[in-house]
Design a protein that fits this description.
There is one protein chain. This protein is of the alpha+beta class. The protein has 2 domains: about 25-140, Signal transduction histidine kinase, dimerisation/phosphotransfer (DHp) domain (Helix Hairpins), CATH 1.10.287; about 145-294, Heat Shock Protein 90. The protein has helices at about 1-10, 25-100, 105-140, 150-160, 165-170, 190-205, 260-270, and strands at about 145-150, 170-175, 185, 210-220, 225-230, 275-280, 285-294. The strands form 2 sheets. A 5-stranded mixed β-sheet has the order 2-4-5-7-6. A two-stranded antiparallel sheet has the order 1-3. The longest helix has about 80 residues, at about 25-100. The termini are far apart.
Length: about 290
């Protein structure tokens, strides 16, 4: 029996506790704790830096996207400007060459060609003025003459400037002057320019059998609101924002000299006046709303 237990003892593996290292000292445990704390702190810093790097990367990606969009818009703008400038310049060059090189041009044709050159020169000047005006407005470099003025006086000024257009198309103007008896703080010339653009657009594109242009004014503690409504064919929803893009035209039958800059200029003017201009969907005709902060 003793031999059996002796053989069995020789084949048994060593007990687990026989491999234990000597217990650590308190100083060793403190050192391990300090090292663990340093590792955790370093890991936390790396995590913060990683989040910051990811945020910076996202910002750079967004900035690059915006630069790409701006570059495309610049190219489109230059292309559109070139196209709009080319038309009057071609006419001016062609008719001036005829007058210069042709000796057998009768007086009637000479006057007609000279008149075309004059009209196209004016058109070119207006276009360049609008482009420069829009550039100043978009850059925020325009100087405003802000002063108190009656809203009624500005509407009167705009209607007087567009009277020939309104009369030529027999447009009936609907007003409530009691609503217009509002004092506002603004640049009257710039705001009148917006009104003139809206009235001119209504005459160009809002014609109906019995054309009407309705002015509605209201105010509250925050802003003064003016609505310009016509009873024409209106504007589709998908074109509601497109009409505020540069060189966008509502119709191919626009009047000579129109470059599609009236509404973009008007919206930029309202931005510079801390106001707003937007299109309002209506069942009949088109409606543009101007908001001027009180």
């Amino acid at each position: 029996m003793d031999d059996f237990y002796a053989a069995r003892d020789n084949t048994m593996p060593p007990l687990p506790w026989t491999n234990f290292a000597p217990p650590h000292t308190v100083e060793d445990l403190i050192a391990v704790a300090d090292e663990t704390a340093q590792i955790m702190e370093y890991s936390s810093k790396l995590e913060v830096q990683s989040r910051a790097l990811a945020k910076t990367t996202a910002q750079l990606r967004e900035a690059n996207r915006k630069l790409t969009v701006l570059s495309e818009q610049k190219d489109d703008f230059l292309s559109q400007v070139s196209h709009e400038l080319r038309t009057p310049m071609t006419s001016i060059r062609s008719f001036s060459e005829i007058l210069r090189d042709s000796e057998n041009v009768d007086e009637e044709k000479r006057r007609r060609f000279s008149s075309i050159i004059h009209q196209e020169s004016n058109r070119l000047t207006r276009l360049l003025d609008e482009i420069l005006d829009l550039s100043f407005l978009e850059s925020g470099q325009v100087q405003l003459n802000i002063r108190p003025v009656q809203l009624e006086a500005i509407i009167d000024q705009a209607l007087a400037a567009t009277e020939p257009q309104l009369s030529a198309h027999s447009v009936r103007v609907i007003r409530n002057k009691a609503q217009e008896n509002i004092s506002i703080l603004t640049d009257p010339d710039r705001l009148s320019q917006v009104f003139i653009n809206l009235i001119s657009n209504s005459v160009k594109y809002g014609l109906s059998e019995n054309p009407e242009l309705d002015f509605r004014c209201s105010s509250n503690k925050e802003f003064v609101k003016i609505e310009f409504s016509d009873n024409g064919p209106g504007i589709s929803s998908e074109h509601a924002e497109q009409i505020f893009e540069k060189f966008s035209k509502l119709s191919s039958d626009s009047e000579t000299g129109s470059a599609g800059l009236g509404l973009p200029i008007s919206r930029e003017i309202m931005k510079n006046l801390s106001g707003n201009l937007f299109f309002k969907k209506t069942e009949v005709g088109a409606c543009f709303v101007i908001q001027i902060p009180v």
